[in-house]
Amino acid sequence: MGGDTYNLRVRLFSFNGTSRYQQYDQFRVHKGDSELELKVAGAGSAGDGLKDLNTEKFSTYDDDNDGDSNRHIADEYQSGWWFKKELGTPLSNLNGVYYRPEEPRQPWHGIIWVNDESLMETKMKIRLPLV
Ligand SMILES: [Ca+2]
Fold first, then answer.
1. Alpha carbon distance 67, 120 (integer Å)
2. Where are the domains of the chain?
3. 62 C-alpha to center of ligand 1: Å?
4. What does pTM read for this prediction?
5. Which of 10, 74, 111, 114 is the most exposed place for a label (fewest CB within 10 A)?
6. What pLDDT score was predicted for residue 1?
7. Percent residues over pLDDT 90 in the chain
8. How far is the CA of 75 from the centre of ligand 1 (A)?
9. 93: CA distance to ligand 1 center in Å?
């Protein structure tokens, strides 16, 4: 997705059987200097798990782009995602570790969206905007 702007819908499924979604009119992952920079704008009902990550660069276990020289947040949370050092914990982390509800986990570890609930399933759907 070389810099095109997409619509994005994120659906979040909890273990209690409920689901929520968040929708973005603009979702763009800009590949500059080989780093994947997030550009989003939108709204929804699930809480915004991406907006405050605008302009952050994607981090993985072997590519630390969180801007914090003292931490490696992607490694701490065993994920590849956009992380912002000022937030301390992940604002969202849809590539986090899958935990069943009965399994012990550290706070903010797991598949996270805005709050500290590790989710059962998530979907990110993108499409080109309708004209
Ligand atoms: Ca770092």
1. 30
2. 6-122
3. 11
4. 0.88
5. 114
6. 44
7. 61
8. 9
9. 16
